[in-house]
Amino acid sequence: MDAAVAWGHDLARDLEAYSAETLSWVDIDRGCLLAGPPGTGKTTFARALAATCCVPPVVGSYSIWQSSREGHLGDLLKAMGATFDEARKAAHSILFVDELDSFYSRSADSRHPDWWTAVVGALLEHLDGVVGREGVVVVGATNHPEMVDPAITRSGRLDRITAVLLPDQRALAATFRVHFGEDLAGVDLTRAALLALGGTGADCERWARGAGGGRARPRAR
Asked: In this protein, which residues make up the domain named AAA+ ATPase (predicted)?
């Protein structure tokens, strides 16, 4: 995720300048949509971004908001508003909105159009409405960017779409090294990474965990 990492470092520098009042909020890139297959580290990136920027992470998603209380439309909208309010109070902050493809394109979905008009409209209002969100950087994540309502990704909202691709051999070797920790110290993991091509960072974690568990369990006699 080289492009995402480069954007994150630029954002960290901009937020530092914003804190020092040497950069105006209008000059800061205030949003990004991470798009890529499941397990490629979009959520991990959002956590790391908040840590790098030394700001609190705030998390929301359609499923989190929809599961609030009775799950009625009013409950969902209140929960969404509460998350944005939390991010504003913590500003500057990183607000991570997962599963953004859950906000279906209103023009492509004929089921319950009134529901989706209200839900997507509320999200758009929080992104750039009258209340504003100075100090709040919104990072979205999706496995299917083509399903996201285009109004969400228009200019001034989450208009920067950054691809988070499957890791190459170099990245897989580095990911294995992180998850193995002190185990296999000094061992070249290039061959393992070659065999793992096509896998994700989440797969590497699972394989490393399985290898560790296999060593820890006593062999049956």
From this structure: 28-168
